[in-house]
Amino acid sequence: MKNPDDEKETICAIATPHGEGSIGIVRISGPRTFKISAPLYRGPKPIQNMASHTAYFGEVVNPIDNSLIDQALFLPMHGPNSYTGEDILEIQAHGNPFLLQKIVSALISQGARMARPGEFTQRAFLSGKMDLSQAEAVMELISAKSTSQHQWALDQLKGRLSIKIETLMTRLLAIIAEIEASIDFSDQDIPVQSGKEIVTEIQQIKDEIHEMISNYDLGRQIIEGFTVVIAGRPNVGKSSLMNYFLQEDRAIVTPEAGTTRDLLQEPLQLEGLSVKLIDTAGFRNSHHPIEQEGIRRAQKAQERSDLTLWVLDISEKPSTEDHDMAKKLQPEKTIILLNKSDLPKQGDIDNFIQKHPQFKYTSTSLVSEEGLAQLKIYIKSNLIKQPEKEQPLVALLRHKIALETAEEKLLSGIKSSQNGDSFEFPAIDLREAIDALGQITGETTLDDIFDQIFNQFCIGK
Ligand SMILES: Nc1nc2c(ncn2[C@@H]2O[C@H](COP(=O)(O)OP(=O)(O)O)[C@@H](O)[C@H]2O)c(=O)[nH]1
Ligand SMILES: [Mg+2]
Fold first, then answer.
1. Structure pTM?
2. How many angstroms separate the alpha carbon of residue 244 from the centre of ligand 2?
3. Which of 3.90.1150.10, 1.20.120.430, 1.10.287.3510, 3.40.720.10 would CATH assign to domain 137-215+396-455?
C-alpha cells in the first residue's frame, strides 16, 4: 500500500540570516530527510543510524562529484519529537551564504524542495505541534525588540491565549448541549430557571471576551511600540533630553532658539518598552516658513502620540504660548518637565503650576541629571496605566476581529433569547461565536488565511 507520507515533499532552506557568521544552518524536514541527506555526509556513521537529538561531526560533500563543501555538525531529530513533527536534520556548517547555498543545491539534487516562507512552522501547525496563535507567536518572538514584546510572544507561544480561547469554546459547547437537552426532553421552551442561568453564563463569557478586546490597544502598542513626543518652546532643553535618552549627540543642541526644525525620530528601549522618541521644533510664533512648517509637523506628531513630554524652562517666565499650549494638550497624555532645575527658579513657574493643576509635573535637569532616572519609570507608568490584567493580552488585529465577531454573536443570542416569559435560544448564534473563536487557534480558519499568515515568515522558519 502507498504510504500517504510519500506524497509529502521533503523541504530544505538556510535557517540563519544571510551574511557571514561563525555558524550557518541548513534545515531539512520531511519523510525523506535522512535518505536525501545521506549522500551528503562523510563520517563514521550513516545518517540513518544516527541517534536522535545527537550532534555528529563530519564532512559535507557534493554527491554529484564527491567534492568537499565544508566540515559541519549534523543534528538529526526524529519525528514526531521535532519542531515540525517530521524527521528533521540540521546541518550546522560555517556561516557563509555561498557554501550554505551549495549544501541546499546538493539537497535539491537529491530530491528535496526549497521551503516556502514559514513552511516549517506551517508543518508544525499541521502536525498539531502548535495552534495558529502559537505559530503567530513564533513570528513575534523572532522580531521582538523589547522586553515586553518578548514576554508577550513567550506567553502566547506557551499557549496563554490558546488555553483561554479553548476554555471559552468548551463553555459555549456546554451551553449548546444544555439547550439541546432541554429541548429534547420537553416539547416546550426552556424552563425559565435554566433559561436565566444560561443567559447569565453567556453574559459572563461575553464580558470576558469584551475585556480581552478592550486590552487590544495596549497589546498593539507593546508589539508596535509607543510614540513619545518631546514638545515645548524653543531653547527649553528638548533636544538635550532626546540626546540624553539616546546616549548620543543625535540632535543639535545650541543656545540659539529655533535650532531644531524638522522632526527627529529615533527608536529607543525604555524600561523594557519599545518607544519611538520624536524631538520637535519649539512652539513659538515664527514668520520663517521653514520653522512654521516644522512647528506644524510638531503639532501633528504630538496629536498622534501616546505621550507628550512637555518641557518647560523654570529659569524663564512662562509665556502666552505656554498658556495656549496648556489649553490644547490632553493632561492624561502629557507629563510636564520642569527642566533646568539646576538654575534659579522664576517665581512665575509656581503660578503656572497653580493655574494648571490638571497636569502631572516632574522636575529635571540635563546638566545635573536630576530626576532623569525617575522620569523613565514615570514615562513607563504613564504608557502602561492598567495593572496586569487577568485576561491574556490580545495584540494582533486578526484576533481582535475574531473576538469582536464572537461578542456580536453572543449579544444577538442574548437579545433574541428573551421572549416574554419563556426562553428560546438560537443555538446558531452560539455556534457562530464558537466558529469565530476557533479562527484564533486555527480550528475553524480558512486555507487562504493560513497562507496569508505563514507568508509573513522568513524562509527557513
Ligand atoms: N542649565 C541647564 N541648561 C540646559 C538644560 N537643558 C538644556 N540646557 C541648555 O539649553 C540650551 C537649549 O537646549 P536645547 O536642547 O537645544 O533646547 P531645545 O531648543 O528645546 O531643543 C542649550 O544651551 C542647552 O545646553 C538644563 O537642564 N540645565
Ligand atoms: Mg531642539
1. 0.75
2. 13
3. 1.20.120.430
The fold of 4-115 is Gyrase A; domain 2 (3.30.1360)
Residue 260 CB less than 6 A away from ligand 1: yes
Domain boundaries, the chain: 4-115, 137-215+396-455, 225-383
pLDDT, tens digit only, all 461 positions of the chain:
344 444 689 999 999 998 999 999 999 999 999 999 999 999 989 999 999 999 999 999 999 999 999 999 999 999 999 999 999 999 999 999 999 999 999 999 999 999 998 899 999 998 999 999 999 999 889 888 888 889 899 999 999 999 999 999 999 999 888 887 776 655 556 666 677 888 899 999 999 999 999 989 888 888 888 999 999 998 999 999 999 999 877 777 777 776 777 788 899 989 889 999 999 888 777 777 777 888 888 888 888 899 999 999 999 999 988 998 899 899 999 999 999 999 999 989 999 999 999 999 999 999 999 999 999 999 999 998 766 667 888 999 899 999 999 999 999 888 887 765 566 777 889 999 999 999 999 887 667 777 777 777 777 77
Q: Please tell me the class of the 225-383 domain.
A: alpha beta
Q: How far is CA 407 from CA 37, 111, 324, 400, 433, in A?
A: 50, 49, 43, 10, 7
Residue type, 8: K
How far apart are the C-alpha atoms of 54 and 60, rounded to whole Å?
Answer: 17
Q: Is the CB of 335 under 6 A from ligand 1?
A: no
Residue by residue, DSSP assigns 96-155 as: -HHHHHHHHHHHHHTT-EEPPTTHHHHHHHHTTSS-HHHHHHHHHHHH--SHHHHHHHHH
255 Cα: distance to centroid of ligand 1 (angstroms): 7
With a 6 A CB cut-off, is 214 part of the ligand 1 pocket? no
Residue of minimum CA distance from atom 2 in ligand 1:
340
Q: Is 367 in the pocket of ligand 1 (CB under 6 A)?
A: yes
Amino acid, res. 64: I
416: helix, strand or coil: helix
Q: Is 340 in the pocket of ligand 1 (CB under 6 A)?
A: yes
